[in-house]
Specification:
Largest sheet of chain A: 7 strands, mixed
Strand order of the largest sheet of chain A: 4-3-2-1-7-8-5
Largest interface: A-B, 48 and 57 residues
Structural class of chain A: alpha+beta
Distance between the termini of chain B: 10 Å
Structural class of chain B: alpha/beta
Shape of chain B: elongated
Number of domains of chain A: 1
Order of helices and strands of chain A: HHEEEEHEEEEH
Number of domains of chain B: 2
Number of strands of chain A: 8
Number of strands of chain B: 15
Helix content of chain B: 25-40%
Number of helices of chain A: 4
Strand content of chain A: 15-25%
Oligomer: heterodimer
Chain lengths: 189, 456
């Protein structure tokens, strides 16, 4: 068990690198203490039977696509539940289909997910740009993608706006694929 | 709700003759009707009393000595209010931070008119945005189609957004002062509130996403973001927003039924004839539709990725789309033959999209829905009228607040506090215009009348 955890730790550098470091104690004469980053909770490990997961630490949402096609959703402060995916091409499918899983696999390949570093740069727009239909500026939050293939688990984090995949840098196409197979944002106008 | 408190509310009900729960239709019947005058004044119009009564009334008014003086004063103020004219609002911006429209108000008739000025740019659709296999000409408008689209859009918006709720004065004894709202869309290419780019797609293609950029901004190349409008040649910055629409946006979508399980009606390889087994599978569907007259059904025609031997590469997806269309048409005909009206049968064909060579893809998916549907253009127009989205999204799930500016406007006008969800609301995934969807109109009424004493 311990060895497994060590292996997981090695593959999920974000989770393991996030060991809390005590903030420096400012000298009394210091004008103002630098802001301390709030400690981020550890990334939920990707279970052995899950192909792809997306975690939003700020909201606590966790989305998982199991290798058998089940779509598992954990709402903030809630329990994980099997949910009907909102597939763009297979309306009414109760799980992500075999071909849907293939499409997600292709999306992982197309962004070179398993070779990406633990954190990639988002592509946040200029401050005066707004998201369509919302009127609000883009707001960066953490999106943490984890995927598993051949026993290897990789986690990649990006700071981006979940309302616009164009802000997600190289992970945008992967988010779009997940959205079209399960999340259902494609159906919102 | 009423600024005058419970006592005034009771008096108001007596004057209006209502029970406080009148339907919008019943309320509308009274809009514009002359207010009911009290006993002390009724005779003036009826000619029962002499000029002596008028003189006594004027004297009593001056000295505040008439019976029911407060009521009589209020009615006189209301009569004066009805005679006033109000300066129209031009390019009114709701406090939500998006939306833009003109407003006129006629107090004599209680009519408020909200005018949305638009310019249309009809463009070819992008085949990449929908399933492969549709023909290139299906992404191109004809002039007749453009005219039909704009005519229907303008009519549908007016029907959807007008007269859904009635505003009333909250002043004591002003309950007869009701305001009906008419929403109209007019074309104004020189000074539009919004420029709408409308892309053409085949009628049976899947949904292409639509969106709106708030005034002063336009869609950038990604389509998801809105950049500030560039200055014109004279240095002025165009104040219009933009809408990214498509030709299918007035088509109802089963958004609240997307998760319903489907019945798969299978077909022979290369065939589009409904088999006995396929017809039998439709019987429970027909029974369900017959039992629920408001239910509807969506058909998705499909094919495998098998191709006719020797078919040129460029024709393969088209041939399979034709096959999928023929299969969906066969199912549709069977439903209509069973008495289901055509308007209840939605068809979205996907051809070989998402498929592989497996025989299971030679099918039509049949999905029955009984929830309210949504016309995307009408939802998008809600944005143009100052309203925000109310559905849950990734990062802002069920129960989380709507956009702050939108909530702030609603709080100031109705006191409602919204939470994101997935329901029939027109700004969610349905078509129901809720009372708070008139918040931007109520706000405009308060501005144009220089009076805060209005409620929904």
């Amino acid at each position: 068990m311990r060895a497994w955890l060590l292996l997981l730790c090695a593959s999920e550098s974000i989770a393991c690198a996030a060991a809390p470091v005590p903030p420096p104690v400012p000298a009394i004469s210091a004008p103002e203490a630098p802001p301390v980053e709030p400690s981020m909770p550890a990334t939920p490990p990707i279970p052995a039977d899950v192909l792809l997961q997306l975690w939003l630490p700020e909201s606590g949402e966790l989305y998982r696509i199991a290798q058998d096609g089940r779509f598992l959703v954990t709402a903030p402060a809630g329990l994980e539940a099997v949910t009907v995916p909102m597939s763009k091409t297979e309306t009414g499918a109760q799980v992500v289909s075999a071909t849907g899983l293939v499409r997600l696999g292709r999306a992982l390949d197309s962004v070179g997910f398993f070779a990406l570093p633990a954190e990639v740069k988002g592509t946040m727009p200029a401050v005066d740009v707004r998201l369509a239909s919302t009127g609000r500026p883009a707001k960066a939050v953490s999106l943490v993608f984890s995927a598993r293939r051949d026993g290897e688990a990789v986690t990649v984090r990006v700071q981006a706006d979940p309302g616009a995949s164009v802000t997600m840098g190289p992970l945008g196409p992967l988010y779009d694929a997940l959205d079209q197979e399960a999340l259902g944002g494609w159906a919102h106008e | 709700m009423e600024s005058g408190g419970a006592g005034n509310a009771a008096a108001a009900e007596a004057v209006a003759g209502g029970d406080g729960g009148a339907s919008p239709a019943a309320e509308l019947a009274t809009v514009g009707a002359p207010e009911v005058l009290g006993e002390g004044t009724a005779g003036r119009d009826g000619g029962t009393f002499s000029w002596v009564d008028d003189a006594m009334n004027a004297m009593g008014d001056a000295l505040d000595m008439r019976s029911g003086e407060d009521r009589l004063d209020a009615q006189e103020e209301l009569a004066a209010f009805r005679r006033r004219t109000f300066t129209p609002l031009t390019d009114h911006h709701p406090s939500s931070g998006f939306g833009q429209f003109d407003v006129t108000f006629d107090a004599a008739t209680g009519a408020m008119v909200v005018t949305l000025k638009v310019a249309y740019d009809f463009v070819n659709g992008s085949p990449a945005a929908v399933s492969p296999g549709f023909r290139p000409e299906e992404f191109q408008w004809t002039p007749a189609e453009q005219t039909a689209w704009s005519t229907r859009y303008e009519a549908d918006v007016s029907a959807q957004w007008s007269s859904r709720h009635v505003f009333h004065s909250t002043k004591p004894f002003w309950t007869a002062m009701l305001v009906n709202t008419t929403v109209r869309v007019v074309q104004d290419a020189s000074h539009p509130h919004f420029r709408l780019t409308v892309a053409k797609y085949p009628n049976d293609a899947g949904m292409a996403q639509s969106s709106v950029c708030d005034p002063g901004r336009h869609h950038d190349a990604t389509g998801d973001l809105c950049s500030v409008n560039a200055p014109a040649a004279d240095g002025s910055v165009p104040g219009h927003g933009t809408g990214s629409f498509d030709s299918n946006d007035m088509r109802p979508e089963q958004k609240l039924d997307w998760g319903n399980a489907t019945v798969a009606v299978s077909f022979a390889q290369g065939g589009a004839a409904l088999s006995t087994a396929g017809a039998a599978l439709l019987q429970p569907v027909i029974a369900q539709l017959q039992a629920a007259p408001t239910a509807h059904v969506e058909l998705t025609g499909r094919s495998s990725t098998d191709h006719r031997r020797g078919a040129p590469a460029a024709d393969r997806a088209v041939e399979n789309m034709d096959l999928a269309r023929a299969r969906a048409a066969a199912v549709r005909s069977a439903l209509i033959a069973a008495g289901i009206t055509a308007d209840r049968v939605l068809v979205r064909n996907q051809g070989e999209d998402a498929a592989d060579a497996g025989a299971e893809w030679r099918r039509v998916d049949v999905q029955v829905g009984d929830h309210e549907m949504q016309d995307p253009a009408l939802h998008e127009t809600g944005h143009m009228l100052g309203l925000g989205d109310e559905y849950a999204v990734t990062g802002a799930g069920v129960g989380t607040p709507v956009e702050a500016g939108y909530q702030s406007m609603i709080t100031a006008t109705t006191g409602e506090v919204l939470a994101r969800g997935r329901d029939e609301s027109a700004m969610g995934v349905g078509s129901t215009v809720r009372p708070w969807h008139y918040s931007s109109f109520l706000e405009a009424l308060r501005v144009i009348s220089s009076d805060q004493s209005w409620g929904i």
